[in-house]
């Protein structure tokens, strides 16, 4: 027994020592010469890419699939559409259209010319699409922009409509240009013009210089460390989630997030089973965009700042690949290609409580939404629910062609049909959550209940009136046969918006 205990103790000691050596070696390798060159202990820990002095208006982006470029989003008249206004949020909201800039028609300017115009440091007169004219004075501020380089959906594991959950396996890559690192190496006279290198960011560099790209977060409601890799996974240390890359004289930090993600969804089932749903995967910048220097979420800085997440060409190509029927494995759903895209969004909370300032503030954060529009394949519900319910109803209405004097046969047949209809209601009840409203299929089932009860009421009425009033019963029976079927068909078509 003592021998076994000694052996186990020795084995545990060996494993512990081996683990120590592994991490010690990994740390030594991680903080290599490139990282050490960049460690300068600067005052600023959160790096903003640009220091600007202009009116702080930024235009939305759009994907040009034909030319495979990301360009400025414009309306039908080719006027640019605003993504975010830093200094005038009251008059210029996300989605506003600007026609002129100091009387210059923006519809006639290229994307590059518009971007250069908006770096002007003089007072600017703007004309909105509504005809409203606004004067904005330039102010100094900081700008940072994270790039979404790739977002590949490897597979959709589950769309749980009852619980409102989207489960997907994905790979994503973010990048952030670090001109401060480039300047540091230039000051040390290290030429990286022809250098190509990729390696992890060491902990010492993270502490001294900061990695703003860490603020990015997905709107995941659950993070399972066993099937998800990224910043929040504290258990898997064998792979760095933030790397440095040097390429053609440019230095970037890269961040990977991959694995299986769980995202809450807000489904609308009113058109079920002919419904179209929008799956939204939100990526938050994690940094407040504000014109008030005192509200900068990076509290050490006292100046206005704006932060964006902007997609490059890669994510759009990845989405195009996923929309190919051979590459996605959705069987219950079909991807609507023309409505699947990547959009910018501004999360606005006018009642955000800042615990550091001890007051309520207006909080604005720029977010990137990956929107996948899917259309339900309705054939399953049509052939397994709607058609069987209609056939059961046909059986119930068939009793109206049975002679009225045989009221027992009529009553038995109609009641059996009603019970069959009630039992069939359980076939699909778990497909959607318990809602406060009725779906189109609910309305159809309810209509079928009502029309299935009519033959029952007629049969009971026939038994009560007996043989003395057969003429009245026959007349009522004919009227219901004549108009009942037509009314049922018309109401059914109205429910499913077919008329």
Any overview of this molecule?
- This protein is an alpha+beta fold.
- It has helices at residues 2-30, 33-38, 111-117, 179-187, 203-209, 313-323, 379-398, 407-424, 440-465, 470-495; strands spanning 50-54, 57-59, 61-64, 69-72, 82-85, 98-101, 104-105, 124-128, 133-136, 139-160, 165-177, 196-200, 217-218, 220-222, 228-229, 242-247, 250-264, 276-284, 305-311, 333-335, 341-354, 359-376.
- The strands form five sheets. Strands 1, 10, 11, 12, 14, 15, 16, 17 and 19 form a nine-stranded mixed sheet that branches. Strands 13, 18, 20, 21 and 22 form a five-stranded antiparallel sheet that branches.
- A hairpin with a 4-residue loop joins strand 3 and strand 4.
- Helix 7 packs antiparallel against helix 8 and helix 8 runs antiparallel to helix 9 (440-465).
Question: What is the fold's blueprint, element by element?
Answer:
Blueprint: H1 2-30, H2 33-38, E1 50-54, E2 57-59, E3 61-64, E4 69-72, E5 82-85, E6 98-101, E7 104-105, H3 111-117, E8 124-128, E9 133-136, E10 139-160, E11 165-177, H4 179-187, E12 196-200, H5 203-209, E13 217-218, E14 220-222, E15 228-229, E16 242-247, E17 250-264, E18 276-284, E19 305-311, H6 313-323, E20 333-335, E21 341-354, E22 359-376, H7 379-398, H8 407-424, H9 440-465, H10 470-495
Parallel strand pairs: 10-19
Antiparallel strand pairs: 1-10, 2-5, 3-4, 6-7, 6-8, 8-9, 10-11, 11-17, 12-16, 13-18, 14-17, 15-17, 16-17, 18-22, 20-22, 21-22
Helix pairs in contact: 7-8, 7-9, 8-9, 9-10
């Amino acid at each position: 027994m003592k021998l076994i205990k000694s052996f186990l103790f020795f084995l545990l000691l060996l494993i512990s020592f081996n683990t120590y050596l592994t991490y010690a070696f990994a740390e030594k390798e991680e903080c290599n010469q490139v990282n050490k060159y960049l460690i300068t202990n600067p005052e600023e820990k959160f790096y903003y890419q640009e220091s600007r002095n202009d009116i702080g208006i930024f235009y939305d982006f759009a994907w040009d699939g034909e030319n495979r470029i990301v360009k400025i989003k414009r309306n039908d008249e080719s006027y640019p559409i605003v993504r975010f206004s830093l200094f005038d949020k009251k008059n210029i909201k996300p989605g506003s259209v600007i026609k002129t800039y100091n009387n210059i028609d923006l519809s006639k300017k290229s994307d590059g010319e518009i971007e250069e115009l908006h770096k002007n440091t003089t007072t600017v007169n703007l004309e909105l699409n509504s005809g409203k004219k606004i004067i904005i004075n330039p102010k100094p501020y900081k700008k940072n922009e994270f790039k979404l380089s790739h977002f590949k959906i490897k597979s959709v594991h589950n769309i749980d409509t009852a619980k409102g959950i989207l489960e997907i396996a994905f790979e994503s890559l973010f990048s952030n240009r670090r001109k401060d690192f480039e300047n540091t190496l230039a000051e040390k006279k290290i030429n990286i013009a022809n250098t190509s290198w990729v390696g992890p960011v060491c902990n010492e560099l993270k502490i001294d210089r900061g990695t703003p790209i860490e603020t990015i977060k997905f709107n995941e409601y659950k993070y399972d460390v066993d099937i998800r890799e990224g910043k929040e996974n504290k258990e898997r240390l064998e792979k760095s989630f933030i790397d440095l890359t040097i390429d053609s004289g440019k230095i970037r930090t890269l961040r990977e997030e991959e694995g299986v993600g769980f995202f809450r969804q807000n489904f609308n089932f009113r058109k079920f089973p002919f419904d179209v749903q929008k799956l939204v995967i939100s990526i938050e910048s994690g940094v407040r965009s504000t014109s008030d220097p005192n509200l900068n979420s990076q509290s050490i800085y006292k100046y206005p700042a704006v932060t964006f997440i902007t997609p490059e060409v890669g994510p759009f190509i990845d989405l195009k690949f996923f929309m190919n029927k051979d590459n996605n494995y959705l069987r219950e759903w079909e991807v609507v290609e023309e409505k699947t895209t990547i959009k910018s969004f501004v999360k606005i909370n006018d009642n955000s409580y800042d615990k550091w300032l001890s007051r309520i503030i207006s909080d604005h954060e720029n977010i990137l939404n990956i929107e996948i529009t899917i259309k339900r394949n309705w054939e399953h519900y049509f052939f397994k629910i709607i058609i069987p319910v209609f056939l059961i109803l046909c059986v119930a209405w068939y009793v109206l062609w049975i002679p009225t004097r045989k009221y027992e046969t009529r009553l038995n047949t109609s009641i059996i049909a009603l019970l069959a209809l009630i039992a069939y209601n359980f076939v699909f009840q778990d497909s959607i959550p318990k809602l406060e409203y009725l779906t189109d299929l609910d309305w159809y089932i309810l209509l079928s209940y009502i029309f299935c009860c009519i033959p029952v009421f007629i049969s009971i009425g026939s038994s009560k009136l007996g043989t003395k009033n057969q003429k009245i019963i026959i007349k009522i029976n004919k009227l219901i046969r004549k108009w009942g079927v037509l009314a049922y068909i018309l109401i059914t078509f109205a429910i499913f918006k077919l008329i």
